[in-house]
Amino acid sequence: MKALVYKEYAPDDNFGDILTVEDVPNPEPKENEVLIQVKASALNYNDVWGMRGNPIPVELPHTSGSDAAGDVLAVGSDVTSIKVGDRVAVHANMSCRVCEACTSGREYDCSKRMVWGFQTTPGSHAEQVCLPEVNVVKIPDTVSYEQAAAAAMNLLTAWHMLVGRAQIKPGQLVLIMGGRSGVGHLGIQIAKLYNCTVIATASPQNAALCKDLGADYVVNHRDEGWVKEVRGICKDIAKKVGGAPGIDVSFDHVGETHFNAQLTLLKFGGTLVSCGATTGFDATIDLRHVFFKGTNILGSTQGTKAELEQGFYWMGQGKIKSAIGAEYTFAQAAEAYKQFLSGEGLFGKIIIKP
Known about the structure:
This protein starts with a strand and ends with a strand. Helix content is 29%, strand content 24%. It contains 10 helices and 17 strands. By secondary structure, it is α/β, with parallel strands linked by helices. Helix 3 crosses helix 9.
């Protein structure tokens, strides 16, 4: 079978120098595993970290990819919930399933947790993959392979951030940073599913697309005056509905450059939930916005299989959809990652196929 492979790192991001399409042996499922014919996989930032060898040096040679959707070709002798022919997607959070965290429903806090396709290899950028039964979920018939692959990791991340960690409630005012991104555009839709008012941040060329997904307001967080603009929206909303102006929940994956600004926008008792830091990890914050306002700062990573199944249920109902910005082949992988990093002309996820 074909797989996208690299055998050395590219810290300079010259991924075209290391990525090759190779013939590799077909995988064979173990007793507890499911063999999947991959119909579509998607790009994620951890693919880039793997190729850079930073912040975690991954095993080499390596096949990346933490999102996949396809058809079940075979199952191991101990598999009971999945059968040949099922349409499935991947739950990339691999945990021990027996520790205190796992057995109390916090598999994302497992000390042995690994992200499939990043900390393990091979991942989804291959024609066939094997995963444990517990890391495979069925997808609704109304959801395409491309939609499922584009959603799997980001849908899980966004759902866990807003529903699992921030515990959003109807009527809240939610700020979605980076609304055009893979995780951001799903965050908009989840917040609207919960009947929240949404302010998304995006460039002017992506503003209409964010509004099409349900955003009530869109501001450009690259503009110097974006904080003032958001604060003005908060005041206008407070005049209409009553209560103190400010953001109830800020959904962050941007990190360093905009972290403290988000804290200034939160109302007393507000929540900032963070799943990443695409602009850098070294955020500087004014602690007065934390202790004086009683601010909740929540970390969030991955989520539970049940949360992913909830998200796919609502996709099947037509309430959430994946925005697919581009599709590439394995042979075009370097070009795909170049667009992924630049974001040029991109809204949503990038799909890659053999």
